[in-house]
Amino acid sequence: MDPIITSLSLLLAIAIATIIIILKQFHARLPLPPGTMGLPYIGETLQLYSQNPNIFFSSKVKRYGSIFKTQLLGCNCIMMASPDAAKAVLLSKPHLFKPTFPPSKERMIGRGAIFFHQGPYHATLRKLVLRAFSPDSIKLLLPHIESIALSSLHSWEPRPLLTTFHEMKTYAFNVALLSIFGKDEVFSYGDELKRCYYTLERGYNSLPINVPGTLFHAAMGARKKLAGILAEIISLRRGGESEDSSLLASFMTDAEGLSDEQIADNVIGVIFAARDTTASVLTWIIKFLAQNPTVLHAVTEEQEAIMRSREGKGLSWEDTRKMRVTTRVIQETMRVASILSFTFREAIQDVEFQGYRIPKGWKVLPLFRNIHHSPENFTDPEKFDPSRFEVAPKPNTFFPFGSGIHSCPGNELAKLEILVLVHHLTTKYKWCMMGPQDGIQYGPFALPQNGLPIKISLKE
Ligand code: HEM
Question: Helices 183-202 and 260-291, interaxial angle, to 10°?
Fold first, then answer.
C-alpha cells in the first residue's frame, strides 16, 4: 500500500480514537442527577412502599426537581417526572432505553412475550397484535362483548354485596379470551384457562422460590398447564380453517413463523396486560361516578339517549362513537387514578440527558402519575373534572396508555369494553359504595381500598 495512504489512515484512526476517549471522559465528568441512594442494596424501597408512593415521589420532586436518582431493591434508578423526559425515554430515543422486568416475571409470563423485546422480533409481534386489536377487527367483537357485559351485570343482580374489582376482573378476563381466541374457544376452554391463569397470577407477586408448597411453584405448574392447553388449541386450529380476526389467528399467519411456544408466551402476556388494567380503570369509574352525581347524571343522559335511538337492537360501533361524555369520564379517570404510576426502562449505554449522566444498566422510570398530577399540566389536578378533556391536553402530558413503540396496542379494545359496560350499567342499574371510600391500595395497580365493595340493584 502507498506509504502516504498508510500514514493518513493511521492518523485518522488515532484522531477517531482520541475523539472517542475525550467524549467518554466528558460523559464520565457529567454529574449523576441529584438524589439519595438509601441503604446498601435495599436503597429506599421501604420509604417508597411503607407509605403512599405518591408522597415519596412528590417529596423527591420538590427537593431535587423533575429528574432524581434513587435505589430500589438493588437497582440504581433515575426517576423522570417531566413531560419532556418521558417523551425522550419512550418516544424519541427508545433505542437507548430497553424495557426491563425482573427475571422471575419473565419466567412466569414467558420470555417470548412482546414486552421483553426490542428490534425486529418486537416489530413483528407488534404488527400482529395491532392487526388483531385494530378498530376494524374489534368492531366484529362488539355484539359478543355486549353479551358478556349483559351476563356479568345480570349475575351481579341477586348478590347483596359485590367486590367491584373482582367482578371487573372476570369481565375483562372474558373479553380478553374473546379477543384472543374468538368466541368458540371461550366456551370450550374458558373455565380451564381461568383456573390455570388464576393460579399463575397468585404467584406473580410472590417470592420467586421454586420449591413445592410455594405460590411460585404452583404458578410455574399452572404456567406449564396453560402452555399445554394453548398447544392443544393451536393444533386444533392448524387442522381447521379458521378465518376469524382473533389474536391467535393473527399469530398463526404462516408468513410470520412464530413457534407454538412464542405464541403461548404472547397469549399469556396479553391476558396479563389486558385484565387487571382494564378492571382497575372500570373500578375507579364506578367510584368516581358514585361520588360525582352531576357527572353520573350527564353520563346516564347520554347513554339513555343512545338506548332510545337503538330501539331494542344491540349497540352498534357508531353508537359507541357518540359516547363523548362517557369517553371524557374514561380519560379523566385514567388521569386521576393513573393506575400505572410509572413504567421501567434500562439504559443500554451511557446516555447524556439534560446535563446529567445516565450510566449504562441503570433503570429509568418515567413517572406518569406525577405528570398527570402536576398543576403545570392540569389545572386543579386533584379535582375529578371530565370536562377538562373537552380541550386536548398539552402534548406529552397524558400517558394513560404509554407512548412510542411500546405504547398499549389494546387501548381501543379497552375503551370499547368500558363503554359497553358503562352503557348497560348506567341505563339499567343504580349502585352505592359500602365501607370506607378514600383509601387506595397498590398491588401493583392503584385501586380503591378493598377493591370497592358496592351494592347494586335494578332501577325502578
Ligand atoms: C385501560 C386498560 C389498559 C391500560 C391502562 C393499559 C396501559 C398500558 C401501558 C401504559 C402500556 C405501556 C407500558 C410501557 O411502556 O412500559 C401498555 C402496553 C401493552 N398493553 Fe395495555 N393497557 C390496557 C389494556 C390493554 C388491553 C385490553 C390489552 C390487550 C387486549 C393490552 C395489551 C398491551 C400490550 C400487549 C402491551 C405491550 C406493548 C409492547 O410492548 O409493544 N393492554 N398498556
Answer: 80
What percentage of the chain carries pLDDT values higher than 70?
A: 95
Most informative mutation of 245, 272, 277 for ligand 1 (most atoms within 8 A of CB): 277
Model confidence band, residue 45 (pLDDT cutoffs 50, 70, 90): confident
- Label the pairing between strands 363-366 and 75-80: parallel
Nearest CA to ligand 1 atom 11: 408
Residue of minimum CA distance from atom 31 in ligand 1: 410
Q: How far apart are CA 90 and CA 156, in angstroms?
A: 40
pLDDT given for residue 254 in this prediction: 67
Question: Between 367 and 56, where is the model more confident?
Answer: 367
Annotated binding site: 408
Confirm if 394 and 339 have CB atoms less than 8 A apart: no
As for ligand 1, residues whose beta carbon falls within 6 Å of it are 99, 114-115, 126, 129, 133, 176, 179, 270, 273-274, 277-278, 281, 339-340, 343, 400-402, 406-410, 413-414
Q: CATH number for the 30-458 domain, one of 3.90.78.10, 2.40.50.140, 3.40.50.40, 1.10.630.10?
A: 1.10.630.10
Q: Helices 260-291 and 324-337 sit at what angle, rounded to 10 degrees?
A: 100
- Phi and psi of 347, rounded to 5°? -70, 125
Give residue-wise pLDDT tens across range 129-138: 999 999 999 9
Q: For residue 288, what are the contacts with CB-CB under 8 A and spacing of at least 6? A: 295, 329, 332, 333, 336, 384
Chain segment 403-455, per-residue pLDDT in tens: 999 999 999 999 999 999 999 999 999 999 998 878 888 777 889 999 999 99
DSSP 445: S
Which atom of ligand 1 lies closest to the CA of 414?
A: 27
Closest CA to 71 of 361, 440, 370: 361
DSSP string, 147-213: HHHHHHHHHHTT-S-EEHHHHHHHHHHHHHHHHHH-HHHHHHHHHHHHHHHHHHHHTTTS----STT
Judge if pTM exceeds 0.90.
yes
Largest CA distance in the chain: 98
User: What cell does 367 get?
Assistant: 413517572
343 near 368, Cβ under 8 Å?
yes
Q: Residues, the chain, total?
A: 460
